[in-house]
Amino acid sequence: MAKQKIELLVEGGKATPAPPLGPALGQMKMNVGEVINQINSKTQSFKGMKVPVTVIVDDKTKEFEIEIGTPPASQLIKKELGLEKGSGEPNKNKVANAAIEQLIKIAQMKKDSMFVKNLKGAVKCIAGSMNAMGILIEGKLSPEFNKDLEAGLFDKEIKEQKTEVSPEKKALLQEQLVKVQEELRKELERLKAEEEAEKAAIAPAVAKPEEAEAKAEGAEEAKEGEEGAEGKEAPKKEEKGAAKKEEKPGKKEEKPGKKEEKPAKK
User: Fold this and answer.
1) Helix, strand, coil percentages in the chain from 3-state DSSP, rounded to 5
2) Please, what are the domains in the chain?
3) CA distance 148 to 155
4) What is this structure's pTM?
5) Interatomic CA distance for residues 37 and 250, integer angstroms
6) How far is it, in rounded angstroms, from Cα 82 to Cα 97?
7) Kind and range of the H or E run holding 67
8) 133 three-class SS
9) At what angle do helices 73-81 and 100-110 cross, to 10 degrees?
10) pLDDT digit string (tens) for 158-205?
């Protein structure tokens, strides 16, 4: 059976008979209002976001099905939590603290495009995405939250499909985030201090061999200088000795002359 597809982007819950959807459905002799109502029903959870929609129509029977695409989970998370971006260092810096209700809301949007059996499985997948973005859930890291999830701590919220967070809970979530951020800051400072202490301890050990080597080189240079100086002074001593030896014979020759003068005076 021949089928036709109409692919378009619509704002969640706000599809209208305006072009291109209305005229295209009219040409196929479809019930435009019925198709639009179904699109709006399926995209209600995407309010404020553009959603890819595909309408598949059977030419003969005029039966139709609607496929709703979804943005990546990271985009849905950022929109829900009012974030511009996730954490560049998710293990060191936490940028938000999400409520279980917010996870349920995002999981509802992504469930159809996930390989999960139920909403609880979708919630667990969204928790993993949040962890990679540096986002806490109910004041906890994803592994801790998943333990609580598996233990059934949030079964009631999931069963009732709660998606609204009370102002009181929002305030509590913010307090939890500030507390965790402060703990992480102190831990990073402690690790930095330990690293600097290790460097300071290693520095003298590295410097001692270098100093010893420098002293040894200095001593060797000094020794070479002394040896060179002695070699230069040795000839001078010989010259002085030779000069003295030459002078002595001259003096001895003068003495006989003086002795000869004495008898003349008498």
Assistant:
1) 65, 10, 25
2) 3-68 (3.30.1550.10), 73-191 (1.10.10.250)
3) 10
4) 0.58
5) 141
6) 11
7) strand 64-68
8) coil
9) 140
10) 999 999 999 999 999 999 999 999 999 998 999 889 888 888 888 776
